[in-house]
Design brief:
Blueprint (H helix, E strand, L loop, with lengths): L5 H25 L16 H11 L9 H35 L13
GO cellular component, one term: mitochondrial inner membrane
Protein name: NADH dehydrogenase [ubiquinone] 1 beta subcomplex subunit 4
Membrane topology: Single-pass membrane protein
Amino acid sequence: MPELSAAEKDFLRRKHEQTSKLRAEYLKQISNPHRHATGEGGTLFDAGLARFQAMRVSNYEHFRPTGVAFRAGFFAVILPIAVYAWALKSERDGREQKYRTGQVAYKDRQFKFI
């Protein structure tokens, strides 16, 4: 594990202190049994959660089509569907060819009318 410089250690220490302060404040507010008397209701507004939900909702507004996004969509959605459709078509065409040439008797067919 690489050794951290003094500036990095100081940054991590300040970040940990800020996180600890925010956690303590959140626990203090969430465990206040008299919060309903202040008119705030029973829920606590979490700014981080609100930002996360807003980001999830506005994700499509900020989407930029790129080559990487195209390849991901192509290989994850379009290509599997096309390969599966080709496999179904070739298998059914082969079975139909056997039926039409008489290689499979009518009584041995999987799907028949009678």
